[in-house]
Amino acid sequence: MAISALPPSNTDTAHQEGLIEFPDNRLLIDLCGEYDRNLADIEQKTGVQIVRRGNQLAIMGDKSAQDQATEVLQALYTRLEAGRDLESGDIDRELRMRGPKHDASSQLEMFKGGKVEIKTRKKLVEPRTKAQKAYVHALFNNELSFGIGPAGTGKTYLAVAVGVSMFLNGQVDKIILSRPAVEAGERLGFLPGDMKDKVDPYMRPLYDALDDFLPAKQLAKLFEEKSIEIAPLAFMRGRTLSNAFVVLDEAQNATALQMKMFLTRLGQGSRMVITGDRTQIDLPRGMPSGLADAERLLTTIPKISFSYFTSKDVVRHPLVAAIIEAYEADTT
To answer: Cα separations (Å) of 182 from 212, 254, 261?
Structure first.
């Protein structure tokens, strides 16, 4: 990486000015962003001040924050050197991955320094938080994985991305995505169309994720060939799912019997991922969630991983995290 970190301009170890020199001025312009928008974003989130001086960036502030900002800028510049575009989500990811040292998860020690990328036909997907990084490793390393946490934390999106990647690499023969078709205010029988038309609205988030990873023509062909299936949970009964990457989304809305039925579909050469949010259960009052039941029964079984997310892992609009925190505070 052709980036020079120059010596600090004063000897105050707590508040010193660091300089980074970037050899390609055109890439530096992209790094800074329109009207220095990217620099402003990094300044706001790390508490440093960044000043551009020709092909150098001067970083002023607390030493630990300055080190964090420096690492983020160097990582983003390396991304640009590799010919890849820079988006606001990339900045957010690098900042989260290089948070304060006390935030580091012990679960990630074995992957320290390792870059995690999921390759699909349309894009390269990278985890944006430490919890997401651990989750992706769990998906690749375990035959049965659970992802539990609030909306917007990437549980389903990353699971589908890993499934597509493993399918494209020939590690599995098909992708099977499922959800419980739980009626939440509108009965299926009153919706227009045949059974597919009735259940498709429930499956829409899964279609949206696939659209992000595969070209439309290839996706249509894979659906036609049954290499990718999207079906309600009830349609899984009696099947043995072999050599497949299987995702059960919104698992908090599966009953205990449905969850047992689904988990026992796991066949040779398959991987299964269960995702859900314990705060969004739409089952009838008094009916226990199959997700909670599985969590209670399976946590001690080796080779079954449980990954947990909080509002800090939300990667949608920042307001989503604030909304989740407000609701969590109201229930405590």
So the answer is: 25, 8, 17
Report CA 181 to chain centroid distance, whole Å: 24
Structure tokens, 162: 């890993």
Per-residue confidence at 169, pLDDT binned at 50, 70, 90?
confident
Give the single-character DSSP code of 266: B
Give the closest residue to 219 by CA, choosing from 231, 208, 210.
210
Tokens of 121: 């036909």
The answer to whether 156 and 247 have CB atoms below 8 angstroms apart is yes
Residue 307 one-letter amino acid? S
This prediction has a pTM of 0.68
Q: Could you tell me which of 168, 178, 169, 167 has the C-alpha nearest to residue 245?
A: 167
What is the per-residue burial (b if ≥16 Cβ within 10 Å, else e) of 54-84?
eeebbbbbeeebbbbbbebbbbbbebbeeee
Token representation of residue 165:
């990647």
- Reduced to 3 states, what is the DSSP secondary structure of residue 245? strand
Yes or no: say if 180 and 173 are a contact pair by the CB < 8 Å rule: no
CA-nearest of 318, 307, 258, 261 to 159 is 307
Instruction: Determine the pLDDT at residue 151.
Output: 86
The answer to whether 162 and 154 are in contact (CB under 8 A) is: no
C-alpha span between 328 and 19 (Å, rounded):
42
Helix, strand, coil percentages in the chain from 3-state DSSP, rounded to 5? 45, 20, 35
Residue with tokens 């074995």: 110
State residue 276 phi and psi, 5-degree precision.
-175, 165
CA–CA separation, 181 vs 197, rounded Å? 12
Handedness of CA 70, 83, 91, 98 (dihedral sign): negative
